[in-house]
Amino acid sequence: MGKAYFKQKCGLYAINIVAACGVFIPEQFAGLGKAAQDCGVFRLKLTSRQTVVAVLDEAKVSCLEQRLTELGLAVSPYGGAVRAVKACAGNSALCPRALGDALDLGIEIQEKFLGREVPKDVKIAVAGCPRGCTDPLCADFGVVARGGGTFNIFLGGRSGSSKPLHGSLLAGGVHKEGVFKILEHVLKQYDELALPKERLAVTAARLGFEAFSPPPGLLGDNSPQESADQDFLAFLNGKGK
Amino acid sequence: MGMSNQIRTTAHVDLEAMIKPLQNICNECDYNGTDDCKPAACMAGFALRSLQFAKQKGILDIPGAVQHIPQSDMKHYFAENIIPALGETCRQCKECQDNHSPDCVIALARTCLENTILEENIHYPGSVFMYLAALRKQDQDIAQMLAAELQRKK
Questions:
Q1: Distance (Å) from the C-alpha of residue A157 to the closest C-alpha of chain B?
Q2: According to CATH, where is 3.90.480.10 located in chain A?
Q3: Which of B6, B61, B99 is the closest to A92 by Cβ?
Q4: Are A28 and A19 in contact (CB under 8 A)?
Q5: What is the pLDDT of residues A72-95, one digit of tens each?
Q6: Could you tell me which of A166, A158, A171 has the C-alpha nearest to residue A219?
Q7: B-contacting residues of A 45-84, CB under 8 Å?
Q8: Quick one: CATH architecture of A2-78?
Q9: What distance in Å separates the CA atoms of residue A213 and residue A186, rounded to the nearest whole number?
Q10: Which fold, A86-228?
Q11: pLDDT in tens, B114-153
Q12: Is ipTM over 0.95?
């Protein structure tokens, strides 16, 4: 795994800067602007992964990197690594259409998994509803809130290349804790089963999605769905109040 | 991020307004109050208990509940009794469109009520206007009754 520094045609360097799923506090945003001025940044560009690219002279790269650390920002990992997580503004305080806390979940996933080494880049997208503003079906691992504190997980999407793919449903009605368990399981399986530099979508297509399915018991013996069912059926039959 | 309120709760839906016409249906039922009253096997009972469950829990969705809707309720229901309840589901519908969930308690009640007076369920298009249009294609009389109910001042 490397860090996202890229030499540009003009000789300048591009640095990919990652924040909490694209969320900056004003001090970070203003601080980044000040640091960009101080380090002679030529341009700043927003990326499709909700990161910011700064273009500057190679000699000023370490200066900017130091300032990023002070601001609580970081240089994005690159190569065979879990990339910056895309998450929409879906949570209880922001998007009125949200069915679940997508932004909070995305930030937590990024904090836990960003930079983890994997055979080839793994892109994760989290959306607060099926509208999917972050294109979760085009991600290696896509998460879509479906209400009731549960999420659907899609695996094997890929937006780029000449053969873009939509992910397929790997697990439905999963609670937040289950999303982390399934992601951990998927990354372990991917580590074990992928050919060198093989994208997750290709591994899944080659071996079948069953190779990534959560094993029995991973989400606990009594799944949240089963508990909810029993609760509702008991009420329905008059055993509840 | 700060949490100022919860997502998809019953706070913005008047569940009681939907419960009342369903209770009226139950009050006219011969089985009401007898040992033969089985909400899990009754369309009106299922709709009523779903709404009461949602009210008790403060939730708008009951994940997986749609698969428990009874399939063998052969009782006869009068359309004039059902329409006020069906109309109330339309009034309370938040027109979630793409985010429509069949496990939403409003959708559960509507599905049950459809089963009492229509030959087939209507695939809910996510908006009341589109729903009326789809209903008209299946049963003009019921569509007219529902439209009149919706025009009636509450």
A1: 21
A2: 2-78
A3: B6
A4: yes
A5: 999 999 889 999 999 999 888 888
A6: A171
A7: none
A8: Alpha-Beta Complex (3.90)
A9: 8
A10: Sulfite Reductase Hemoprotein; domain 1 (3.30.413)
A11: 999 998 888 888 788 889 999 999 999 999 999 999 998 6
A12: no
